[in-house]
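Re: Re: ligand-bound prediction request (bumping)

Still looking for help on this. To restate: I need the protein modeled with nicotinamide-adenine-dinucleotide bound, output as structure tokens. Inputs repeated here so nobody has to scroll up.
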Amino acid sequence: MSKTALIVGVANNRSIAWAIAEQLHKQGVKLAFTFQGEALERRVRPLAESVNSEIVEPCDVTDDAQLENVISKIKEKWGVLDVLVHSVAFAQREDLEGRFIDTSREGFTTALNISVYSLIALSRLAEPLMENRNGSILTLSYYGSEKVVPNYNVMGVAKAALESTVRYLAWDLGTKKIRVNAISAGPVKTLAACGVRDFREILAQNEQKTPLKENISAEDVGALGAFLASDSAKHITGSTMYVDSGAHIMAF
Ligand code: NAD
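Reply:
Sorry for the wait, this slipped through. Here it is.
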């Protein structure tokens, strides 16, 4: 029987989640998608149809009823789930520029709620469908969790919390044979990335900094995602793996 995957976080064909979905589709994995709001539905539905997806549901990750609905649709249709891809992040624009110290309580809570708590909530709901079948949960992080990247600000703190969340979830879910990992990706031009001030500059500087002197593509992340989702990675859990042309090894 083919494996099944829920992909949360496709906004358009440039999304990292879409690149992972394409690779999983090539491996014969059946895919379910969510979209955040009507505007994105128009982008996500045709993409989902192009890979014969049978489940396409609305899901704002701050809404517990929508999270529950997605999982119940998967339970109805498939009964089980093998892979959960969490590729969601958000911070208010004003919190992605200027001084980090000016982050408001509301901005902090919003960023951590959408970008981190959503992984915990989704994992808890998916656990009964994923247990004891070498399940794999994946999320997306960035090096701004470890080192200061100007303007990344509250999202850096959210990514640090996300990577820690991955470790705690991996411990909780290990006995159910569910693995939990993060991919720390180099910068890729997507809708979310354009919210970070001076992102073009980050891309240009990053290219020069990497040992390979090349930026990565969403397809590179898709390939690692597909590997981590597969049984070839069955003893990899709790990790944050880099796809960044080696940027993370450099001091400057
Ligand atoms: P993207 O804009 O294509 O995807 C971000 C997704 O988050 C969108 O689909 C959006 O709908 C979703 N989202 C935001 N708020 C939501 C909410 N309340 N409910 C449901 N969904 C919500 O951008 P992307 O770059 O593909 O981002 C995917 C992930 O990759 C994010 O976690 C991002 O931080 C991470 N990442 C991106 C880069 C990069 O340079 N692009 C690098 C490293 C990590």
